[in-house]
Amino acid sequence: MFTDKEKEFLKEKCKLEPYQIGTIERAQDLFDFSDKIVLEIGGSNLPKECVFDIMSAKKWVCIDLIEPYQVLRNKEHYNNCTFINLNDAELFNKIMENDYVIIKGDIADVGERLRESFDICLSLCCFEHIHRFNMALSNIYCSLKENGILFTEFGPIYSCKYGSHYWYDINSNFNRQEPILDYKHLLMNNMELLIFLLEKFPKEKANMIHHHFKASERINRLFYEDYIRYMELSDFANYKLKPLKKIEVGEELQGQLMKKYPGYKDFSTYSIQILAQKDKI
């Protein structure tokens, strides 16, 4: 657990969100980062002061599809980072030469480049954005050393009330969602949703929300049960997957959603925690 002073430092100096601090604390309750070589999936904004001075990791490598807004929001951090393209022929050597590296790329494209290199794989609110999920899990498993640990918490997932991940502006987004939008990404088809949105919002906003609900590539649109099935089919034989946060669904709405999506029952899980360990080879 972080001390109050450490939490304040992580929030004010390192600009971490409360959910990031919470996930790291829960991870630390389960295993130790001290002197470990860590692969982080997504994020890329955990600064050196956090991972080395506070978490005591030995080496930190993050792979992330970095968006411009991330850099603009935290220039001081990114200006002091070593970046490597995933397809760089000297990728492995450059990782060995640096204790803190950000790889520009997608975990689903890693393949065997990082085979058996990491003690821990950590990911904070990223897995809901991964499209080729089975390939990502396979590459994470390959990248872990024997007995290596995967720990992730992520959400909101697509099958919950706020799963669209839509963002119009600071006052209208999935974190501050208008109640009339609840579950509309699941209950309405493409055209039904567009007509509904045009009736409720100005055209520009309606079109933006419609894109995020139905077409945006920022999310993978996997349901809770899909994550369960992907883990069952993965190389990880030793794992625990559980809801981290749930939002109650009314009986009538639950019935509508189950009718529309046969084989799916869980529309209340907002976020998921996965803890997995690579078995001995």
Name a few traits of the molecule.
281 residues; alpha/beta; eight-stranded mixed sheet; two-stranded antiparallel ribbon; 37% helix; globular
Helical content (DSSP H or I, runs of 4+): 25-40%
Instruction: Catalogue the unreliable spans.
Output: none
* SSE-based structural type: alpha/beta
What separation lies between the terminal Cα atoms? 33 Å
What is the topology?
Layout: H1 4-12, H2 18-30, E1 37-41, H3 48-54, E2 59-64, H4 68-73, H5 75-78, E3 82-85, H6 91-97, E4 100-104, E5 118-124, H7 133-143, E6 144-154, E7 167-169, E8 172-173, H8 184-187, H9 190-200, H10 203-214, H11 224-233, E9 238-246, H12 251-260, E10 269-277
Parallel strand pairs: 1-2, 1-5, 2-4, 3-4, 5-6
Antiparallel strand pairs: 6-10, 7-8, 9-10
